[in-house]
Queue: 2 jobs
Job 1
Amino acid sequence: MIDFHSHILPGIDDGSKDVAETLALLNLLKDQGVRTVVATPHFYADDERVERFLERRAQAKALLTDKIPAGMNIVCGAEVAYYPGISRLPNLSALCIENSKLLLLEMPMSKWTDYTVKELIELSGRGDITVVIAHIERYMGYQSHDTLRLLRANGILLQCNASFFLKLTTKGKALSMLKKGEIHFIGSDCHNLTHRAPHIGQAFEWIEKKCGKLFLEELLNFGKAKLH
Ligand SMILES: [Fe+2]
């Protein structure tokens, strides 16, 4: 299984604080059935250049050399904070998840402007990038159904967090979206061992219970195929 959204790299953002915490998180994810973890540290264009971020990310990953639990695999990506004009950022595609065109975007917690919607569509149409909106459940309430439909129709993919499937108040909605093909990737978005620990295994178990083994396999295979 793949965890598409995590802050497990040590000391690079507000996620794991050090190697020990990273290894504990990786072991928890392994126990939950995850074998590939996409590491998506926050990237803010206001704070640093893409090249510097990539250097810091490589350094953080290097700290884990020979320490990653057997059978586990870390693939590097980023959770890129959207801003109007991001499509003009030099080297934006270098922030895609390794060996893929997937760019995980963190969006504003407000109604997206027409400019923003147009920019997302243009980005996804330019060929080198497939836009993936991170934890879509956080933003849905601000957007119209038409906006979400338009984004999906233009090839924009949606990631949601495991918690969307686990909270009593949202799990029904999560299931209905998943069945309609409106959720493409699931991530733990884990940051630490306490209040933002990974619970993605539980989400996968619940999906299997509600939708069946084959459905879950198809979802997982879709994600796997996008990473190669
Ligand atoms: Fe995140």
Job 2
Amino acid sequence: MKLEKCITEANMNQNLLNIQYAVRGPIVDRAAQIEREIEKGVPKPFARVVRANIGDCHALGQKPITFIRQVLAGAACPELLGSSDIPEDVKERVRRILEDCTRGSVGAYSPSNGLQLVRQHVAGYLAARDGVPASPTALHLGSGASDLIKSVLTLFVADVRGKPPAVMIPIPQYPLFSGTLSELGLRQANYYLDEENHWALQLEELQRSWEQASVDAHVRALVVINPGNPTGQVLTRKNIEEIIKFAYDHDLFILADEVYQENIISKPFYSFKKVMYDMGAPYSSMELASFVTCSKGWAAECGLRSAFVELLNLQPRVLAAFQAARAVMQCPTVLGQCVLDCVAKPPVLGEQSYEQFARERRGVARVLAERAASAHRTFNTIPGYSCNTIDGSMFAFPRIEIPARAQAAAREKGMAPDEFYCLRLLEETGVCVVPGSGFGQRPGTFHFRTTILHPREEFQHMMDSIRGFHLQFLKTYS
Ligand SMILES: Cc1ncc(COP(=O)(O)O)c(C=O)c1O
């Protein structure tokens, strides 16, 4: 009898062994275990687990936008279009989408870059956003931004002049980037965001990171997350101009992760594309990939997996290879594309769905603004906490001082101090947040990321729990 498995830790793709994704990491696993323990009646000092680890608004109780769900219902089951309960503009939308689907069914594959109609609507949305023309041919739809970001990063898997490729990413970052770079065997070149300066991107730091990475690698691309996750900053136009110039001077391809562009609270959002075009030649012909998803913004339909990337100024042969690689995966989910159609071309004044749509959308924006202000205020009143204002996205990323004795206790357990802190927080209050070490942070600083979009009472309960826990933690370890 053979004892060895065909595939083992020693002979498998070693890149996969390096992937870490804290947003669904060990603390979240422990939260699920605690939930099961509560169900079985194991006594706990709290009644329930509060999940604040993932930016999934519907999971936190946000109601789906009615217009989107009606379009989905009609597209999946066209018989419903006979019902007088479905508004006329929804019926019209569904008819137009189904006309673009093979044999009128969302169950049929679409073109690999997405339905023509949806790409046309997305191009209209982008043109209105930026005041710059957008073409459906530059748009590629995907099953979530994660899917598309991986496809674009795959383009860089190639040694250049004998040096391995590297990609610059912000720290703190959303760990999709570090995880995907690990998976693809691309080197990660970290640049630190400036916490003291509202998480701005400093040019000297970009230069430092580039020089350090360039010693033994070829830096190919620069990732920017704007609005920031986990950091919640919105870059100023001037900062974006500086970054574009830096990328131009260093021959870097820009990946602009702009998935939170509809989650804007207090500062205007400028897309990299708009700023590049406004800067004119030579910047307007730089290569750029900009990502937008339906998982975020007011739609927040994470589970339907729908997003697009706009690819600008790629060499035709590179673009063709990208398209070929996408075609191998068939196409993104067609129901997801229906969501994107609604996001890109929502109801307008005068259409039957407009009033309800506008009310629901305003409600989402109001909750985000309220929670962001409240999280910022509360965290800055907890001793040892500091938190920048949250201008966009849907997270708070407070910095916490962890007493030396607690750091020593963490080391004894082989844990990072903020991991230890978050685990204690979970065990004692049921609040599940993600340690800053899962996103990266300046050595010697500690943070955690929490989502902020819980219903008001739950949010208040979470804030009170965190405050109470921290004061007790300080008593124990100071
Ligand atoms: C910054 C950022 N980029 C990309 C994604 C991926 O989103 P999705 O794959 O759900 O579209 C997320 C999800 O949280 C994110 O926060």
